[in-house]
Amino acid sequence: MLRRKLHDGWLSVTVAPEHFDLAHVLRRPGKKPEVLLLHSQPRADDAQAGDLVALRKRLGLARYRCTNLLYEGEYQLLQVEPPEVPAAEVKEALRWRIRDSLNFPAEVATVDMLEIPSDPGIRGRTKQVFAVAASNELLSPRVALFDGARVPLLAIDIPELAQRNIAALFEQEERGLALLAFDDAGALLTFTFRGELIAVRRIDVSSPQLRQAEAARREQLFERIALEAQRSLDNFDRQHGQISVPRLLVSPLPEVPEFLDYLRKDISLPVAELDLAEVLDFPSLPELTLPLRQSQCLKALGAALRD
User: Fold this and answer.
1) Which of 64, 84, 107, 164 could serve as 11's disulfide partner, Cβ 3.0–4.6 Å?
2) Does the pLDDT at position 1 exceed 50?
3) Could you give the 3-state DSSP secondary structure of residue 157?
4) Domains of the chain with CATH codes
5) Counting beta carbons within 10 angstroms of the beta carbon of residue 255, is it exposed (0 to 12), middle (13 to 18) or buried (19 or more)?
6) Residue 126 above 80 pLDDT?
């Protein structure tokens, strides 16, 4: 039986509590990455398998290399010192190094590692890595879901790396970038340099909270975000002062237009709104010119930028 050829690029499938987001992006040498497919739809209650089968038939998902993006709370990301063991043994040794920090038994965890690049020009600083862990009790049904729907799942990723992929497109040469993005799960602040994730901070304020808050409460949320963001910027400068971070990019919040002006008053860096049109091509998807749509699909697009 001949094996079906898969489309170039990656198609990300994000399974959020209430909806699916799918994005197919093709990287092209010397050109902007092109978004070839973007689709969102509500999830039926407890009917992921049926939803995914329907999506496979409607969008031809069997012809794509798929990556699934885990949702906040489905994994843990920890910054630790890597164990000094042979390369072939690092992940297993890392499992036991982080065991006391996990919310589930280390014995039933899948563990992976992402190196944090060493700071150029600084000697003597302890090497650090990001350890990523997820329970097999969560991952096994997820893999079975895709297998049962006959959708080729070739990778599983996390939001921090999806956001890193977006940030890398906005970096200026030999400059770092701070990117603050909001979604239904909360706010994620990432620091990148040379396309690599250097630091990350979660802020427990979501886009629905900002949209739905009354004026007084909204002001409190603004203050909290600005305070935590500025603390993170200050901490990054102390830890990585040799990396210049010239600006803070913020994902669009068109339903909360006053937020950017508030940040500009309280943040020490220039603050600008992210616009994917600067770094991506999407000639057949005019919906992506809308700021709200960019925010809704930012992580899905970032996951599809997997290289």
Assistant:
1) 64
2) no
3) strand
4) 10-70+138-157 (3.30.420.40), 76-136 (3.30.1490), 160-274 (3.30.420.40)
5) middle
6) no
